[in-house]
Amino acid sequence: MNQNFEFISDERFRLSIQDDYGEMLKAKNSNMWKATHILAGSIVEALLVSSLIDIDYQPNDASKSILHIQLHEAIIASQANSIISESISDVSRVIKNYRNLIHPGRVIRLSEEISEETATVAVMLVNMVSKEIERRNKVSYGFTAKQIVSRVTSDPVSMSILQSLLASTKSNEKLRLLKEDIFQKHTEICSGDDLPFHPDLLLDILRNLYSQVFKDLDHSGKQLIGDYYSELITRGDSSTLYMLYLLMENYYEFGMAFYFTDVSARLIEPYFLKKFEDNSPLMFKGLNGFSLIATEEVCFTIINRLIFYIANNDNSISAEDITRLMVN
Asked: Do residues 134 and 240 both lie within one domain?
């Protein structure tokens, strides 16, 4: 069972559902049957509402926010919009009754049985609903940013079909990849011990992923990334500066500025060149495409830095790197 709920596009829903799922399992393992039932109903409701938001569903009552619809309404709307099948809709109606167990009178009035067996069934039903929504989301919504990152870092060979994966990925998820999820995975890899592959391989995969996703964006999407870099530079708090440093050293390519607005490009170019002068040879990889926009002054800075590294016999800059830069 996917306990990370990576198919949920909204981060707030995903984290909330993830927490509730963990609490549900803890409750079941602690013989807290009523709590297990109530959390099961809560999870299904959140799963359905999140999926309805993804397709821009609007309640029949225009005065009601989708966040305020009842579980039975969410079930009907989800089946009508092919988010869940008829059989899963029936399962969801069973879980709907669990939401009402928070009211003591209902248990007494309807003689509802709350036991280990029914709690076990509740967890199984949640898993069934979750798997159905994940499967159908791939068709109706496409891949989320987290699913893309998870896929390529757990199965590096899948980079060979990245273009096919991106073809089924919405623009907002591609932007989320470049703004959030690749950065988060990079940090996780650098601080993690139990990794499926060598960290250098995983980080190279992320760099390639970042470059390919940027190229796949339309012009307005590329400009939004430029605006994002500008925002990070302007904001300047400690956490933002760390993110900016990591992005500049590992992911930013000079040629990206060709697609940015003039305002963003003027802000980002000198910042990158200053970092380039002061920091690691890894930033040489960020010079890809510099010939698209480099001025004579920029070329002078780059060549000076190349000479410095060559004169100091820095073996971390390969002949292939230098040849590639000169060709660009």
From this structure: no
